[in-house]
Amino acid sequence: MIVIKDISAFESMRITGQLLAQLFVELERSVVPGVTTLDIDAHIDRYLSAHGLVSQSKGYMGYKHASCISLNDVVVHGVPSSSQKLVVGDMVTIDVCAQFRGYCADMARCFFVGEVSSEAKKLVEVTQCSLDAGIAQAVPGARISDISAAIQKVVESAGFGVVRDFAGHGIGRKMHEAPEILNYGKPGRGPVIREGMAFALEPMVTFGKYDVYVERDGWTARTVDKSLAAHIEDTVIVTAHGPQVITRL
Ligand code: MF3
Ligand code: CO
């Protein structure tokens, strides 16, 4: 069942989204050579506590951190570690989901450590375009897979891969709600999008093949061919006037 949110739920979600967006502005300055991914997670954890935000990843299926931090060929769910130091050329995806006043927002951004390859830049650019194309489809009356198809088209037109093993999702009081929103598929399928719905849209895009595997830690998802992967996520609410991205300032 897809939960329809009222104005006050949307208002809470907006506040959560804006607090997360401000966190990500701060993170720009902490994604630098020599910093460990655990240092970054500690920064995130402190920010969440200081603002009364409740991490949705900490405690989720035994996960222990306030963020997922995924480097280079890691697609999603990289686990922050004190032995993982950022070096120039790294591409870093930071993913944070938190709740405030009982409502969640979920957000991920790609950061570059110093100068990165032109391939990495292109990959992130295309991932961003695919997300924006997906968001544009989140209008009342459209169908869920219209979002999926729009994302896939942008990614594949650029010659990149769309990861199949993870998807976007509904969001509200809980981090993961119905519906599941694949990043690929034919348009015109799935539930009709209505005012009051909220989605976390999150294309995961690979430079090479889209196949991924999960490491023995049970979390870290990497590309099989070791190619670079990008992941960008925004939380979007559907209003009568169309989609509104609540995780952008
Ligand atoms: N933010 C992720 C998502 O988009 C979920 C975090 S996975 C967790 O679904 F295990 F860390 F919680
Ligand atoms: Co998500």
Detailed description of the structure:
There is one protein chain. The chain is of the alpha+beta class and 249 residues long. It has one domain (7-245): Creatine Amidinohydrolase. Helices cover 27% and strands 26% of the residues. The chain contains four helices and 15 strands. It has helices spanning 7-27, 37-50, 118-136, 144-157; strands at 54-55, 68-71, 74-76, 91-100, 103-112, 161-162, 168-170, 177-181, 198-201, 204-206, 212-214, 221-223, 229-231, 234-239, 242-245. The strands form four sheets. It has a five-stranded antiparallel beta sheet with strand order 8-7-9-14-15. Strands 1, 2, 4 and 5 form a four-stranded antiparallel beta sheet that branches. A three-stranded antiparallel beta sheet has the order 3-12-11, with no helix packed on it. Strand 4 and strand 5 form a beta hairpin. Helix 3 packs antiparallel against helix 4 (144-157). The longest helix has 21 residues, at 7-27. The radius of gyration is 17 Å and the shape is globular. The two termini are 30 Å apart. The mean pLDDT is 98. The structure holds 2-amino-4-trifluoromethylsulfanyl-butyric acid (MF3) and cobalt (II) ion (CO). Cobalt (II) ion (CO) is lined by residues 106, 169, 200, 202, 233.
Chain-wise SSE layout:
Blueprint lengths: L6 H21 L9 H14 L3 E2 L12 E4 L2 E3 L14 E10 L2 E10 L5 H19 L7 H14 L3 E2 L5 E3 L6 E5 L16 E4 L2 E3 L5 E3 L6 E3 L5 E3 L2 E6 L2 E4 L4
Antiparallel strand pairs: 1-4, 2-4, 3-12, 4-5, 6-10, 7-8, 7-9, 9-14, 10-13, 11-12, 14-15
Helix pairs in contact: 3-4
Bound molecules: 2-amino-4-trifluoromethylsulfanyl-butyric acid (MF3) and cobalt (II) ion.
